[in-house]
Each structure stands twice: as structure tokens, then as C-alpha cells.
Amino acid sequence: MLRLFVLSFLAVAPVRVLGQCTLLVSPDGPDTIQDAVDAAVDGDIICLEDGTFTGVGNRDIDFRGKAITIRSQSGDPEACVIDAAGEAGSPHRAFQFSNGEGPGSVLEDVTLTGGYSEGSRWGGYGGGHSVHHLLANSSQPQVGVQSGGP
Q1: Which end of the chain is less enclosed by CB atoms within 10 A, N or C?
Q2: DSSP one-letter string for 20-83
Q3: Alpha carbon distances (Å) from 86 to 14, 76, 129, 147
Q4: How far apart are CA 102 and CA 67, in angstroms?
């Protein structure tokens, strides 16, 4: 009898398996990558379905200092693209790391493309992503991405 109770408990208890997706985002929505980041807690893994992510909420993404992982679900960076669609007069990046992100903040297996930076808004550097190393707020995320063309 005890064995049945234990099995029943395990069947309904939430168990986090290392490497398993906590949140899943589709390029077709309705949620965006930023929505998933905002809902995530430290340790969560946000998986992106294959396709091209564009538009508000899928560019200028801010990890908000969280120790989370964002990666493609398939593990194929060529199949999972974040297009920032930045251009002169409308600069955008795929990601912005500026809130003290550390090695627990991970971006991997995605292609970043279409990033554009100009002038003082973004410091004039880093079209695809920017990692700010500020004296009082150093960001040092793990970024393993394939950067695409303009």
C-alpha cells in the first residue's frame, strides 16, 4: 500500500529535470521571449521553438539580472533565429545584458541577426547583443551564439 502512495505522489509532484524546458516560446506567439523572461525565475530554462522571432518583445530582450537560460529547443542555431530588425533611425539589438547578469545567465544555440546600433542610445557598439561591464553593476553572462548578417 505504501508503494502505491509513493508512486501516486511522484506522478503528481512537479519534478524539474536538469536541461528540461521550463517555458516554451513559439515565433507565432502569443507570448514573446521577453514575456517568458519576465515570468521566469532563477534556474528556469526558456526554450525557443524553431523559426524566426521578430518584433516587440522578441528584440531588445533584457534578462533583468536573472540566472536563466534561453536556448533553441532543437539545439540548432540555424533553425532558431532572433531578428532584431534594426536599422538607421530605428536601432535595435536582440539582447541587452546590463543588469548584473552572471555566469548563470545563459544564451545558447540561437542565431542573432538584424541588430543595429548607433549613437548614444546604445553607446554606439554591439548590434546583435551588448554586454555592459559597469564598475558597480558588472554583467558577465554566458553567450554562445551564432551571429548572422545585418
Answers
A1: N
A2: --SEEE-TT-SS-HHHHHHH--TT-EEEE-SEEE-STTSSSEE-TT---EEEESSS-TTTEEEE
A3: 40, 24, 12, 14
A4: 7
pLDDT tens readout for residues 76-109? 988 999 999 988 888 888 888 888 888 888 888 8
Half-sphere exposure of 144 (CA within 13 A, CB side): 14
Is 62:92 a contact under the CB 8 Å cutoff?
no
Three-point CA angle 139, 142, 148, nearest 5°: 105
**Residue 62 in contact with residue 100, Cβ under 8 Å?**
no
Contact 89, 125 (CB under 8 A): no
Q: How far apart are CA 106 and CA 43, in angstroms?
A: 10
**pTM score above 0.85:** no
Lowest mean pLDDT among 39-53, 71-85, 99-113: 99-113
Does position 53 have pLDDT exceeding 90, yes or no? yes
